Amino acid sequence: MSNTPAANTEAASIKPHTGKLGVMIPGMGAVATTLIAGVEAIRRGLAKPIGSLTQMGTIRLGKRTDNNSPLIKDFAGLCPLEDLVFTGWDIFGGNLYDAAKTAQVLDRDQLEEIRPFLESIEPMPAVFDQHYVKRLTGQKIKVGKNKCDLANQIRNDIAEFKTKTDRQIMIWCGSTEIYLEQTAVHQTLEAFEKGLVDNDPGISPSMMYAWAALKEGIPFANGAPNLTVDIPALQELSKKMNAPICGKDFKTGQTFIKTVLAPAFKTRMLGVAGWYSTNILGNRDGEVLDDPESFKTKEVSKLGVLEHIFQPELHPDLYKDLYHKVRINYYPPRGDNKEGWDNIDIFGWLGYPMQIKVDFLCRDSILAAPLALDLVLFMDLAARSEKLKGIGIQEWLSFYFKDPDTAPGVYPEHDLFIQSMKLKNTLRHIMGQDLITHLGLDYYGD
C-alpha cells in the first residue's frame, strides 16, 4: 500500500480488528456446518480456503507496470480466521458434529479430524414458525407471548455472546421462507416494532433475527431470498444503529453461471430467445423449496437476474421476447450435490439461431461456505469503516448475491465482473488508494 497522506488518512478511519469476532448464525445446517468445519480445518492447516476472495484473492494497486497486488486480507486489514468464534440457533437438537453428519456434505474422515471442535458448539433454541417454512417441523424452538417477546429473547442471546466476543456479525443461513409482499408494517421502524407486539403476519422469523441484530448494532447478512432487511423499516434501523446490511440469497451455482454468461452475450450483442433452467437437489434446501410458497421466494430471486443484465427496454431487438423459466425439483438421492441444467437459445448475425447447454454438477454448500466467510469478514470491515458503517446497504457486496440490495430507485447490478470491480474499487476507496478505471489510454500517451 502506498504511503501517501491520503492513503494513510483513509486507512486510519478504519478501526483495527482487535480481539474476537463473534459469528452468529440463524440456521446451523448444511451451509453453516460446512463453513465452520472448513474454517477450523483451514486454521489447523488441514485444508486451503479455496473459493474465498478474502483469503486467496489479490487486489491490484496502481498501474499494471507497478506489479503491486497484495492479498486482499492484508491490504484491507481483515479479521484473521484465528479470531473467529461461532454460535447460532437451530430448530433441530444436537451439536454441530451431529448437524454436519446429517447434512452429509463433508466426508466422515474430515469430520473426525475436527470432531471435538464441532461437538463443542451447540446451537441455541431458535425462533421458528411453521407458517413461514411449511416443510420443516421445529424440535428446539423458543416460546414467547408474542413476536416482540421472541425477538427480545434473541437480543438476550446476543447480549450473552457479547460478553465473550469483541465484535459480532449475524449471517442468516436458515431455510427459505414463504414469499412475502411489503405491507404497511414494513414501512417504518415504528410500525414494525408495533407489529412485533401485535404479532403481525408480515413479520417473519428472519425479520425478527435481523431486527434483534440491528438493534444491538450488529451487521446482518442474508444467505436466503427472504424479504427480511429489504424493507424501509429495517433499512432505517440499519442506518440509525450504524449496523450495515447487504443483499440476499448466496449466488452459488446456476445463478453464478448466469451472471457470467449473460454479460458475455450482451457484450457481444448476441440475442437470447429463451433460457430454461432446472435444478435437482436433495438436501434440506430442496425439501423446503418443494413447497410452492417457499419456491416462489426463490423463483423471484432467480428470475430477476437476466432482466437486469440484458435491459430489454434498451435492446428490444435482442431481448424483448426472452422467455425465462426456472424450475427446482426435490430429488433426495442427490443430497447436497445439486445439478443445475440450462438450455439457452441464442441468435446471432441475421437472426440465425444457436444453442448452448450447461450442466453444472455442483456442491451447493461447498460453493456457499466461502461466500458466507467473505461476507462475515467484509461486513465486519464495513462496521469498522467510518465511510461505510452509516450508509445502511453495502451495495459493493452485490458480488455475493442473487438479489443485491440497492438504494431506492437504483436498479441492481448483476454482471459478476462489474460487481467484482465495484467491490475492489470500494476497498481501494476506503483505503485511500486510486481507483482503477481500466482506461485504454493509460500506457499510450504522455
From TrEMBL:
<dbReference type="GO" id="GO:0004512">
    <property type="term" value="F:inositol-3-phosphate synthase activity"/>
</dbReference>
<dbReference type="GO" id="GO:0008654">
    <property type="term" value="P:phospholipid biosynthetic process"/>
</dbReference>
<dbReference type="Pfam" id="PF07994">
    <property type="entry name" value="NAD_binding_5"/>
</dbReference>
<dbReference type="GO" id="GO:0006021">
    <property type="term" value="P:inositol biosynthetic process"/>
</dbReference>
<comment type="similarity">
    <text>Belongs to the myo-inositol 1-phosphate synthase family.</text>
</comment>
<protein>
    <submittedName>
        <fullName>Inositol-3-phosphate synthase</fullName>
        <ecNumber>5.5.1.4</ecNumber>
    </submittedName>
</protein>
<dbReference type="InterPro" id="IPR013021">
    <property type="entry name" value="Myo-inos-1-P_Synthase_GAPDH"/>
</dbReference>
<feature type="domain" description="Myo-inositol-1-phosphate synthase GAPDH-like">
    <location>
        <begin position="253"/>
        <end position="365"/>
    </location>
</feature>
<keyword id="KW-0413">Isomerase</keyword>
<dbReference type="InterPro" id="IPR036291">
    <property type="entry name" value="NAD(P)-bd_dom_sf"/>
</dbReference>
<dbReference type="Pfam" id="PF01658">
    <property type="entry name" value="Inos-1-P_synth"/>
</dbReference>
<dbReference type="InterPro" id="IPR002587">
    <property type="entry name" value="Myo-inos-1-P_Synthase"/>
</dbReference>
